[in-house]
């Protein structure tokens, strides 16, 4: 699934590149290109120096050094058990984040993080489900149990009244997807009745859509964008990954892909098992919030082509009770 609408692409200059290279001890700058990718978490640039290539990420929202250190430790634990992921670099002061605030507008993103560069293929929903299941199993195996509070993004629904209001606003605003959105609001709010509180919390990646689970030219699977890592029900993340990689373009379950993913997950030591519709709570909540953000972005007139495409993808591949029943049957 596509992530949320991008509120703006942070830009970097050659002077920024020189500052970053100095603070992270990367050697003299040879080139700076980008953004090479943009998404929910920020924009990524490719920095080439005499020492090699690096990914420079500019977060769209301020990040906390302590939280990023916890996420980097989680990523490192996954790397140590065989997950391919870009390693985070530290500044000469030992920090993951550095600030480029000098001379920038007050509301402009100014923080950056630097990672080892990994060449990646385009996002592909058809990648080997066994490889996806294995990686998820390893990630869940190293994710520590936790009692931290879970962000409402993963646990709370949009709600029947909000869906009805969104459908009316889309219709009143002449949105091209208004009729389709109105047609599904009842079934979407009905699906939210399945949502239950999470249990068995562990530190999880929480953003394992196809955009963040990519193959490399050499054929390995690489997991990127660990910035959202935090407490979640691993069963919920397993359900989310299944809906992404084991359904077709119309949202129908592919039993063979689902079985290969689940078997590989269990073989890799993944602790979660899917037993009831409530195990799909996380995917219902997250997809609902993503759709809501795309609709609201369109209504505000922000990047309407991107927002319209996001709504269309949700409506084409949306999770239904039939999807959940099919995956539970597997």
UniProtKB/TrEMBL annotation:
Task: Identify the residues that the record assigns to the Aminoglycoside phosphotransferase domain, covering every copy.
Answer: 42-275
Q: Specify the protein name.
A: Aminoglycoside phosphotransferase family protein
Q: List the Pfam families hit by this protein, alphabetically.
A: APH
Q: Which Gene3D superfamilies match?
A: 3.90.1200.10
InterPro entries documented for this protein: Aminoglycoside_PTrfase (IPR002575), CcrZ_PhaseVar_Mediator (IPR052077), Kinase-like_dom_sf (IPR011009)
Task: Give the originating organism.
Answer: Occultella glacieicola
- Entry-linked SUPFAM superfamilies: Protein kinase-like (PK-like)
């Amino acid at each position: 699934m596509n992530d949320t609408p991008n509120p703006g692409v942070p830009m970097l200059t050659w002077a920024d590149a020189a500052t970053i290279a100095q603070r992270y001890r990367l050697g003299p700058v040879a080139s700076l290109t980008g953004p090479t990718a943009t998404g929910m978490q920020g924009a990524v640039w490719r920095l080439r120096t005499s020492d090699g290539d690096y990914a420079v990420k500019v977060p769209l929202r301020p990040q906390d050094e302590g939280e990023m250190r916890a996420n980097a430790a989680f990523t490192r634990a996954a790397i140590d058990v065989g997950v391919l992921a870009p390693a985070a670099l530290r500044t000469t002061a030992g920090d993951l984040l550095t600030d480029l605030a000098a001379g920038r507008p007050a509301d402009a993103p100014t923080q950056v993080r630097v990672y080892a560069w990994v060449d990646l293929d385009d996002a592909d929903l058809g990648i080997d489900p066994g490889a996806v299941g294995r990686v998820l199993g390893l990630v869940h195996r190293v994710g520590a149990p936790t009692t931290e509070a879970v962000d409402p993004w993963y646990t709370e629904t949009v709600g029947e009244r909000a869906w009805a209001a969104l459908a009316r606003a889309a219709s009143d605003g002449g949105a091209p997807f208004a009729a389709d959105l109105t047609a599904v609001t009842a079934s979407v709010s009905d699906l939210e009745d399945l949502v239950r509180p999470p249990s068995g919390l562990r530190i999880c990646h929480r953003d394992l859509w196809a955009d963040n689970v990519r193959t490399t030219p050499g054929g390995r699977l690489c997991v990127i964008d660990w910035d959202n890592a935090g407490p979640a029900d691993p069963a919920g993340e397993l359900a989310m990954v299944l809906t992404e990689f084991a359904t077709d373009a119309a949202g129908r379950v592919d039993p063979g892909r689902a079985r290969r993913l689940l078997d590989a997950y269990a073989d890799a030591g993944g602790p979660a098992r899917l037993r009831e519709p409530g195990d799909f709570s996380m995917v219902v909540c997250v997809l609902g919030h993503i759709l809501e953000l795309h609709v609201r972005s369109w209504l505000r007139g922000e990047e309407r082509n991107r927002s319209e495409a996001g709504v269309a993808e949700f409506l084409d591949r949306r999770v239904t009770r039939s999807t959940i029943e099919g995956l539970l049957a597997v």
